[in-house]
Structures are given as structure tokens and as C-alpha cells.
Amino acid sequence: MIYRVAARSPLLRILGRSLFVAVAVMLVAFSLMRLAPGDPVVVLLGDNATDESIALMRTQLGLNGSYPEQLATYLGGLARGDMGKSVVFGVSVSRLIGQALPVTLQLMLVSITMTVLFAIPISVYVALHPRGRVASLFLIGSSFFVSMPAFFIGLLALLIAAVWLKIAPVAGMVGNLPQAISYLWLPSLVISLSLVPILARVLAASIASTIREEFVEVAIVRGVRGRTFAWRYLLRPSIAPTLSLLSYIVGTLFASAVVVELVFNLPGTGTLLVNAVAGRDYPLVQGIVLISGVFVVLVSTIADIITYKIDPRVAL
User: Fold this and answer.
1) Which of 72, 187, 196, 300 has the fewest CB atoms within 10 Å, counting from its CB?
2) What pTM was computed for the model?
3) Given this structure, which CATH class describes domain 101-315?
4) Please, which residues bridge with residue 85 across strands?
């Protein structure tokens, strides 16, 4: 019985830490308007606003009462799926995020898939041939793409693929996956170009360290080759730090989505966030921050659990 509890304790620690971070994200999102300098209601309505309009706006934004009372009202709304009403669009925040979030999630899914498909073979080859020309070209290319801003690569990709070659739409998105792949492959490629170097470098370094292990030499002596050798003796023991990095990359994708969605005119949460900030739509900004933060925590938790299942040594 004690052994079972001890075996499960790493998972319980992962879940407990994730729950703590999710609560912290919720409190930060809730405190956005409360900690901002000045009165957000006066900022929204202007200096010439009447007392009646200010009182009405305070009620709509849930800014009446003390901080604990506002927090209790906010939590009650979240329990009902109510994150408030958008000041700019005049509809519920949940509805706006529900319309924009699928676009961003599809963009992230295609971007991560492309990143993994490119990074794994590159990292394996670079780890096995560290002094080859491919490794040198990869180091040069990775430094270039990591240092270039996403908006510049996006504009350059639009010019080449959409304007010159006409193999991709110029802007917008119609439908969902898999029909929308023609609209998503180019912005996803722009995102993956900055992610592949990071992921491939970490995985290549991990594989290079694994190659020096004794069990790999034994496998080579035994004549293990092909997919069994690549997965069981190279990738699986080396993938733990890569999964942890991949969960972090998911968080950075939300930041990348803001730029890429604007460049490619995609109706996702990035574009919605920019419009909300420009319109000083505090409830909408608060809702997007909350959903994005909780989603990143969820992905990070899943990645930690998968990492522990693949290699229980990470619990040490």
C-alpha cells in the first residue's frame, strides 16, 4: 500500500502544482482591471462621463463592492460559464472567445505538427553526424530564423508564396480542418521556422548524450537497427526534456499567434486580443488572458504526465 502511494505521488505533485498555477492565472486575470493605474471606467467613458453612466459601467464590469466581493461575483460567473460582456462588441466574452479560439487552436495544432515532423529527423541526423555539412548548415539556418522577427518572415512568406507563386491564399480563413489546411499551412510554416531550431537543438543534444550510454553500445553490438533502434534506444530515452520544452513552446505559440494572425488576417484569439486592447475592452482582455493561461497550464500538465510515463526518472 505504501509503495503504491509513493508510486503515485509524482503524479499527485504534478496535478497539485498545475492546480495551484491555474488558480494563480485566474487571480492575475481577475486583477488586470483592479491593478491597472487609474480608473478603468473613466478611461473607457472619458473625463466628461456623468455619474450615472459611470455607475452603470461599474455594474456592467463587476467593479462594485470590495475586492473579495468582486472576486466572489467573478468566480460565480465563471462557474456558470459567464466571463462578462464585451464593451466593444456588446456580446458575451464567452461567445467571442468561443468563435475565435478554434482558429488559434487549429493554427497551433498544424504548427506543432509541422515543428515535430521537421525537428525529429533533423535532430537525429545532426546528433549522429555532428561534424557534417548538414549540421553546420542547420546551425547557421537556425541562428538566422531564430533571430528574425515573425512579422518579417510572415510578410516575406506572403510575398513569395501568395503573391509570386500563388500557392497560398493572401489572407483569411474559411472552414475548419482539414479543409482549412490551405489557409493554415503557410502561417504554420512561419511559426515552425522559429520553433524547429529550438526543438531540434535540444533533442539533438539529448540524443548525443544518450548515444554515449552503455545500453546503446550494447544494442549496436547486438545488431539492433532500423526503427526499433531509433525509437527505443535513441528517441525514447532522449525525449523527456523535449516534451517539457514542447509544453513551453505551446505557451509561446499564443504570443506568436498575435503577430501571425494579424499578418495573415486570421480571425483567432490573437487578432481578437489586439482589437480588445485597442478598444480598451477590459472584460475581453481578461477573458482571453484567463483562457490562454489555463490552456497552457493544461498542456504543460499533460506533457509532464506523459514525460513521467515515458521516463519515470524525471520524477527524481
Assistant:
1) 72
2) 0.82
3) mainly alpha
4) 92
